[in-house]
Design a protein that fits this description.
There is one protein chain. The protein is an alpha/beta fold and 319 residues long. It has helices spanning 48-59, 80-90, 99-105, 123-141, 144-151, 183-186, 192-202, 283-293, 299-308; strands spanning 33-34, 37-41, 65-70, 94-96, 156-161, 164-169, 206-209, 216-221, 227-232, 247-253, 263-269, 272-279. The strands form two sheets. The chain has a six-stranded mixed β-sheet with strand order 1-5-6-7-9-8, with no helix packed on it. A hairpin with a 2-residue loop joins strand 5 and strand 6 (164-169). The radius of gyration is 18 Å and the shape is globular.
């Protein structure tokens, strides 16, 4: 995050620990795997019904395929049995740690939820996220084997789909909890020089991220005339706008999405489809389960209930 706009204030939930940071050149490495189709699932947030729907979508894909959970797959799942179930199902695929998993595995580092919230997020939202993390940490301590395993998950991965090299991250190109792949940051002209620099250092064609609340897909021609893209899925386990309760995930493939799959946004790069696809899950059961864990008046209910029910005006309470 060194020379990017928007310095963050210090304090739990706003600070960015040094251990979260890496140089974009770490992505200039051979890919860990090749696939015809890649799913990137960020921000599951402990929603098992979204996970059911994602697994059903993935089962419809043909050819070689790979699914990566790029962090924050835990969040609302404070029931120990649900926590253990989510963890086991995610680990059947490739799992990366987000700030949530990192802070669950750590002793209290003073980073709170580790979200590194920027200044436009209200202090009350930050405080509630810190409270949620602390409550979830109590659950994680009841699942010691899973907690230890979370701490050794990688922060990022590199994949190859066709001719496209893809860096999968939780935050941005320099930090586990970076916000520079939020659509509002990507649209700032002042960030273009930074984007060109990090793509040159990373030697990738696409960054696939999550972490921030708002999904987005941006493509542009770099300074060296190469085509670059950033896709942020926002959240797989929750809606992100008024009137919407579905989740969103990233699909990158040599083939178009199967018939009947709702593609919300897409572009083509190097002959590869880069798509944001809709995740429709059982809203009624999810809301019932959420309320059983986080009743009215709880920190998660205050921050997220309007988002879960699609009645939100905006989505400032991102993880």
């Amino acid at each position: 995050m060194a020379d990017t706009p928007g310095d963050f204030a210090h304090g739990p939930g706003r600070s960015c620990p040094l251990a979260y940071r890496y140089n974009p050149s770490v992505f200039a490495r051979p890919p860990e795997w090749h696939a015809d189709t890649l799913y990137v699932v960020g921000g599951l947030y402990g929603n098992p019904f979204a996970l059911d729907a994602i697994e059903a979508l993935f089962a419809r894909e043909s050819g070689s395929k790979h699914m990566v959970f790029n962090g924050d797959f835990h969040w609302f799942d404070i029931d120990p049995a649900l926590f253990a179930s989510i963890d086991a199902r995610v680990h059947q695929h490739t799992a990366l740690r987000g700030n949530v998993e990192t802070e669950l595995a750590n002793a209290d580092s003073g980073a709170g939820c580790g979200c590194a919230y920027p200044s436009h997020v209200a202090d009350a939202d930050v405080a509630r996220s810190n409270t949620i993390l602390q409550r979830l940490r109590e659950t994680a301590h009841q699942c010691p084997a899973q907690r230890v395993a979370l701490g050794v998950l990688p922060m990022h991965s590199v994949a190859q789909v066709g001719a496209a090299r893809i860096a999968v991250v939780h935050g941005d190109a320099e930090s586990l909890a970076g916000w520079q792949f939020d659509p509002s940051a990507l649209d700032q002209p002042a960030n273009r020089a930074w984007l060109d620099r990090i793509f040159d250092q990373a030697q990738v064609d696409v960054f696939a991220s999550s972490h921030t609340c708002t999904p987005g897909l941006r493509q542009w021609k770099g300074a060296n005339h190469s085509i670059r893209a950033v896709i942020n899925n926002g959240s797989a386990g929750m809606g992100h706008a008024a009137g919407h309760t579905h989740g969103t995930i990233t699909r990158i493939s040599l083939h178009d999405a199967p018939s009947g799959v709702a593609v919300l946004n897409e572009t083509r790069l190097l002959g590869v489809y880069i798509q944001a696809i809709q995740v429709d899950f059982d809203d009624a059961r999810w809301q019932q389960q959420f309320l059983a864990q986080w009743p009215p008046g709880s920190a998660a209910h205050m921050s997220y209930w309007s988002r879960i029910t699609g009645s939100m005006a905006n989505c400032t309470a991102a993880v």
